[in-house]
Write a structure and sequence with these properties.
Helix content: over 70%
Radius of gyration: 28 Å
Strand content: under 5%
Number of strands: 0
Largest sheet: none
Distance between the termini: 85 Å
Number of helices: 6
Length: 141
């Protein structure tokens, strides 16, 4: 049975160190897989530390486990209700044609194919007017 607790401790060490190495080297993002590896590794350390009565290690790994568990729960909560990404400001480079009008036409054609022509046409016209208002005066002449 002692061998089982040692295997648990070494497995926890390998999991946590592998996850940390993977994130540090850019092989893995600090996302769900990273947190799950930390959670399982910390649980294995808790078991090993309790068997060896290494209470500072147990307390540290309980905290490590809780941090990972909370991070996983927060990731799960944000996955269910994704927040719309903030739209990056549009940049108009000199010498590059403004294609905003083309976008409005494509949107109008798409809405005609998919229905709600009147509603989408109004949106496209408003979008086109807005785009024309933001184009510098030098470009319009």
């Amino acid at each position: 049975m002692e061998l089982l607790w040692e295997i648990a401790g070494w497995s926890g060490a390998v999991l946590i160190l592998s996850a940390y190495l993977s994130v540090s080297m850019g092989w893995l993002k600090a996302g769900k897989r990273f947190q799950v590896a930390n959670l399982i590794g910390a649980c294995a350390f808790i078991v090993n530390g309790a068997v060896h009565q290494a209470w500072p290690s147990v307390v540290t790994n309980v905290a490590w486990c809780l941090i990972s568990a909370v991070a996983i729960l927060r990731m799960r909560a944000t996955q269910e209700s994704p927040v719309a990404a903030a739209e990056a400001p549009q940049v108009q480079f000199p010498g590059v044609p403004d294609t905003t009008g083309q976008i409005a036409v494509v949107e109008a054609i798409t809405s005609a194919v998919h229905g709600d022509v009147a509603g989408r046409a109004a949106e496209c016209q408003a979008s086109l007017r807005e785009a024309r208002a933001t184009v510098p005066a030098a470009r319009t002449s």
